[in-house]
């Protein structure tokens, strides 16, 4: 007799050794056989695909491509439609993980990469683009800048390539701009210093620096002032200035630069010193302050009163209280400069602006109404 075994809807667990036994009164006979199960055939299908990416020169590039299918598909790689030698130097191919690695990317590695999975039932392909960027180059080279405080300043940083580059400016480690051009509408002394431009792309960051020098026009902190002195006297006329860079100072009398003489000299603090003055050095003195930003001037009159000679002396008079009285006084000097002042007998200076009964005209003192106390 024969008996057949039918297994429907075979599954993987059915694979293994099977036995068939026949038994009668004389004994038992057993036959063993092996059941092997082959998975159903199917075309390749991707379980992971390569992704497009942008990297810098020298970067590591990883492309993944895995596929399933029965039988297991073979993987082939192409770059720009040309087969890739997966054993070439600089490449690493790991079939078990489906990973193709470019160990150090160069510009020539840029292109379109595709992987194809093939078995007896078909093939599938997937592609990705690899872009390789070189480190940006800042060009033209940055140049140091000089600007006068209050003026506008624009700093420009250009790089090659320009696409995909992020640019920023730093001053003293602080970010002051996020574009290729940095504009300061009105510069101040605090804007001076070392500026850095950073141009960043996937390859890294390029840096370049320049110095900005902010200058300030000379200004007078103590300007010279007018003086009137007697011949033979001495006086100092100060002139103090500030500015960036520090100004140089000179003195000019009329249109002539003042030189040190026995009567006039310029001190280390730029003070004009007049010693034992004589009438020949009278005039308008100008303090001139100059630096790289410009020039400033401030003037003062120096009046030297020469030797005085009285031509008319005041005379004793007898006045009636409540009536008017007049006293004359005339004088000349070597340089025609006369400053006349009247005093009461008690040495108090007579001030016509403080007493409406008193007037002084061309040296003549007049009282419209004399009081007894004015004797």
Write up this protein.
With 375 residues, the protein is an all-beta fold. Helix content is 0%, strand content 52%. The chain contains no helices and 35 strands. Strands 14, 17, 18, 20, 21 and 24 form a six-stranded mixed beta sheet that branches. Strands 4-12-11-7-8 form a five-stranded mixed beta sheet, with no helix packed on it. The protein is rod-shaped, with a radius of gyration of 53 Å. The mean pLDDT is 91.
Helicity range: under 10%
Counted by DSSP, the helix tally is 0
Query: Low-confidence segments, ≥5 residues, pLDDT <50?
Result: none
Shape: rod-shaped
On the 0-100 scale, what is the average pLDDT?
Answer: 91
- The multimeric state of the shown protein is single chain
DSSP, total strands: 35
């Amino acid at each position: 007799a024969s008996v057949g075994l039918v297994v429907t809807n075979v599954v993987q667990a059915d694979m293994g050794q099977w036995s068939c036994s026949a038994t009668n009164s004389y004994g038992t006979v057993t036959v063993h056989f092996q059941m092997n199960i082959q998975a159903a055939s199917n075309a390749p299908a991707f379980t992971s695909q390569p992704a497009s990416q942008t990297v810098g020169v020298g970067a590591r590039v990883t492309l993944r491509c895995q596929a399933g299918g029965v039988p297991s598909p073979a993987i082939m790689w192409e770059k720009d439609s040309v087969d890739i030698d997966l054993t070439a130097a600089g490449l690493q191919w790991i079939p078990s993980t489906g990973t193709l690695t470019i160990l150090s990317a160069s510009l020539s590695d840029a292109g379109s990469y595709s992987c194809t999975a093939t078995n007896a039932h078909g093939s599938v392909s997937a592609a990705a683009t690899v872009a390789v960027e070189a480190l940006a180059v800042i060009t033209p080279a940055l140049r140091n800048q000089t600007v006068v405080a209050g003026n506008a300043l624009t700093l420009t940083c250009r790089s090659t390539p320009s696409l995909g580059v992020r640019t920023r400016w730093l001053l003293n480690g602080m970010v002051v701009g996020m574009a290729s051009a940095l504009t300061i509408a009105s510069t101040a002394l605090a804007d001076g210093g070392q500026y850095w431009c950073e141009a960043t792309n996937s390859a890294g960051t390029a840096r370049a620096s320049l110095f900005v020098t902010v200058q300030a026009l000379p200004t007078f902190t103590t300007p010279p002032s007018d003086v009137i002195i007697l011949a033979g006297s001495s006086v100092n006329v100060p002139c103090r200035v500030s500015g960036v860079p520090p100004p140089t100072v000179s003195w000019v009398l009329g249109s002539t630069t003042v030189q040190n003489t026995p009567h006039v000299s310029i001190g280390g603090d730029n003070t004009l010193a007049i010693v034992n003055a004589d009438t020949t050095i009278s005039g308008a003195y100008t303090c001139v302050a100059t630096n790289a930003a410009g020039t400033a001037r401030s003037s003062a009159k120096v009046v030297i009163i020469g030797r005085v000679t009285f031509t008319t002396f005041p005379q004793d008079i007898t006045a009636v209280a409540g009536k008017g009285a007049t006293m004359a006084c005339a004088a000349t000097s070597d340089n025609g400069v006369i400053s006349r002042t009247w005093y009461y007998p008690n040495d108090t200076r007579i001030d016509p602006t403080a007493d409406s009964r008193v007037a002084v005209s061309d040296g003549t003192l007049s009282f419209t109404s004399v009081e007894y106390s004015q004797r």
